[in-house]
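Technical annex, item 7. During the second reporting period the consortium partners agreed on a shared format for inverse folding records so that results from different sites could be compared directly. Each record opens with the tokenized structure and is followed by the designed sequence. A conforming record, contributed by the partner at site C, is shown below for reference.
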């Protein structure tokens, strides 16, 4: 069970400014929760706390029945994958960038994850025995391509919880369909918490949480939130 629960969570960075105030919500196991809200409302901080980049000042975060802080770091690393477009890409082939998620993976597993992430062109290149270099920080790839490589990696690693940040996604119209397809797979298979900027992601999410100054302003499905307007 990978339900994630925030119970009265408060958090400040070192400068002491309060960022999250008495924040409570539940991310259901196997479902997708979209975080939306103005810049500075605390979305990235929520993601950082789930990955235990920081720990809460007050309150508790649970995964299943366990307190997050009681889960061993190596166990937590196996449970959670982060999909951030601009990080963790290193200057090597796309194949090796995907395979780093699970070095022991068979070529079949790598190909399967790539196909589900809609990295068609990369698979074809691999089958023909060559591979694109991603460049430093992924400089030779478009935003959407980087995101798909990142999604392929998450699918290969096969952790049950995926934390996804769309906020830096460049508007990449050519890649829109491919990204939708790749995200559909993640959202169908995993417990997903996504900082959502794309309308498709927001509409398809099982729950939308609207943050404002570190508190939940509204939550519900897209339909429910539209009805309230
Ligand atoms: P976060 O809320 O995750 O910190 P920001 O709001 O700082 O993200 O924005 C991250 C990137 O997304 C920036 O490059 C910003 O220009 C872009 N961005 C933010 N809001 C929007 C929006 N509503 N539509 C399009 N791009 C946006
Ligand atoms: P969002 O993702 O919604 O844009 P963030 O979680 O990034 O919001 O930021 C929430 C608040 O915390 C903002 O006021 C931001 O300036 C502040 N903040 C974010 N990261 C840090 C940090 N590392 N140190 C100090 N303040 C930070």
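Designed sequence (site C submission):
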């Amino acid at each position: 069970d990978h339900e994630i629960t925030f119970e009265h969570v408060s958090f400040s960075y070192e400068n002491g400014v309060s960022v999250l105030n008495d924040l409570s919500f539940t991310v259901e196991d196997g479902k997708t929760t979209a975080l939306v809200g103005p810049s500075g409302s605390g979305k990235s901080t929520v993601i950082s706390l789930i990955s235990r980049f920081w720990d809460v000042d007050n309150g508790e975060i649970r995964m299943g029945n366990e307190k997050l802080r009681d889960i061993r770091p190596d166990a937590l690393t196996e449970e959670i994958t982060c999909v951030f477009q601009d990080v963790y890409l290193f200057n090597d082939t796309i194949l090796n960038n995907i395979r780093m998620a699970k070095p022991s993976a068979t070529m079949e597993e790598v190909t399967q994850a790539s196909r589900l992430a809609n990295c068609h062109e990369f698979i074809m290149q691999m089958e023909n025995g060559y591979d694109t270099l991603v460049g430093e920080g992924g400089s030779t790839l478009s935003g959407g391509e980087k995101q798909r490589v990142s999604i392929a990696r998450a699918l290969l690693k096969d952790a049950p919880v995926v934390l996804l940040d769309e906020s830096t996604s460049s508007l990449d119209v050519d890649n829109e369909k491919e990204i939708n397809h790749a995200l559909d797979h993640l959202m169908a298979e995993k417990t997903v918490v996504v900082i959502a900027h794309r309308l498709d992601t927001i509409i398809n999410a099982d729950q939308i949480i609207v943050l404002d100054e570190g508190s939940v302003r509204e939550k519900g499905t897209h339909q429910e939130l539209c009805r309230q307007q």
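Residues 39, 43-44, 167-168, 195, 197 surround adenosine-5'-diphosphate (ligand 1) (CB under 6 Å). The first helix runs from residue 43 to 50. All partners now use this format for quarterly exchanges.
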